[in-house]
Design a protein that fits this description.
four-stranded antiparallel sheet, 279 residues, Neuraminidase
Length: 279
C-alpha cells in the first residue's frame, strides 16, 4: 500500500493559559504534527485509532481526525508497514534521528511490540528496503524489496527469508484462499505461498489491494475507482476517488480508509468522511 505522493495534515492545538507569572507556550510556538508521503494504514490493535505509516514516522489518527505523532518520536521513513496480532513490522529508510542500531541507509525489517513506542532490528538491517510488506492470517510475512522483483517470504517473524516468484507487484494481500498481488500484468493469485502465480483474467487492473475479513478482495484500479470482487468472481466498481491513492486499507467488513487528494478518507455504508484533509 505504498503511494509516494505528498500529503500534509495539520492539527489544531489548544492554547492553554494558566497564569501570568511565567512564560506560557502557545499553539503558535509548537509545530503541529505533519504527515507526508503516506505509505500504509492499519488499525491500531488496541482500538479504533488508525496507525498511519509515513515518510517521517508512524502517526496515530483518531476516529474524529485528531493526529498525533510520530509515535515514540521515531522519524524513520516507513516505506513498508504491516501489523499482525499486536506486533508492528516496518521497513524503509532511517530518518535524521533514527537509532543507528535499526540500520542505515535501509532499515531491513524492524519490529515493535509496544505499538510503535520502541523498535528493534530483526533482519537485513542496513541492506534491504521493503516497499511492499504484508502479513498473512498465520503471521507469515511477505514482501518485495525496492532493489528487486522477487517475492520474499518469512515464517519466523522476519528472521529468515525465502525467495519466491519474480513479480513486479505494487501491493500484496493474503486471505485463506492464498496470496494475491496487484501486478503490472493484472491480479495474480498464488496457492503455494508465492512460489508460483496465475493471473485472474476477470479482475480489473489494480494498483492497491486489500481484503475484507471474509476474504473478499477490494482495490483501487488504474481508472481511479474502488473495485470489489463479487461472490461469482466478477468485479464491481464502487466509487470514484480523487487523484492517485497513496494508501488503501480495509479496516473491517464495512470500513475502508484511504489517502487521496482529499486527505485521509473513511468510506462506510453510511457515506464518505474526510477524517483529515490536507491543509
Amino acid at each position: 500500500m505504498n503511494r509516494l505522493l505528498p500529503l500534509t495534515v495539520l492539527t489544531t492545538l489548544a492554547l492553554t493559559i494558566t497564569g501570568c507569572a511565567s512564560t506560557q507556550t502557545t499553539a503558535t510556538d509548537i509545530a503541529p504534527p505533519r504527515i507526508e508521503h503516506v505509505h500504509g494504514i492499519a488499525e491500531d490493535p488496541r482500538g479504533s485509532d488508525l496507525l498511519v505509516a509515513t515518510h517521517n514516522g508512524i502517526f496515530t489518527v483518531t476516529p474524529t481526525g485528531d493526529v498525533s505523532g510520530p509515535i515514540g518520536g521515531h522519524d524513520f521513513d516507513a516505506m513498508g508497514f504491516t501489523v499482525t496480532d499486536n506486533t508492528l513490522f516496518a521497513s524503509g529508510h532511517r530518518g535524521p534521528d533514527t537509532a543507528a542500531e535499526l540500520g542505515a541507509p535501509n532499515l531491513g525489517i524492524i519490529q515493535s511490540d509496544d505499538y510503535g513506542q520502541t523498535w528493534s532490528p530483526v533482519a537485513l538491517n542496513g541492506s534491504t528496503d521493503f516497499h511492499v510488506l504484508t502479513a498473512g492470517p498465520d503471521g507469515t510475512l511477505y514482501g518485495i524489496a525496492s532493489s528487486g522483483v522477487d517475492l520474499l517470504r518469512s515464517t519466523d517473524s522476519g528472521g529468515e527469508w525465502t525467495r519466491g516468484a519474480s513479480i513486479a507487484a505494487a501491493d500484496l494481500v493474503v486471505t485463506d484462499d492464498g496470496l494475491y498481488a496487484a501486478a503490472e500484468e493484472g491480479l495474480l493469485h498464488s496457492t503455494d505461498q508465492g512460489v508460483t502465480f496465475s493471473r485472474d483474467e476477470s479482475a480489473p487492473l489494480l494498483y492497491t489491494l486489500d481484503a475484507r475479513p471474509d476474504g473478499t478482495l477490494l482495490g483501487v484500479g488504474t481508472d481511479g475507482a474502488i473495485w470489489t470482487q463479487n461472490p461469482d468472481n466478477t468485479w464491481q466498481s464502487l466509487e470514484a476517488l480523487e487523484g492517485a491513492v497513496q494508501a488503501f486499507s480495509v479496516i473491517d467488513a464495512n470500513r475502508i480508509v484511504l489517502v487521496d487528494d482529499r486527505g485521509i478518507v473513511e468510506i462506510t455504508p453510511d457515506g464518505t468522511t474526510i477524517l483529515s484533509p490536507p491543509r
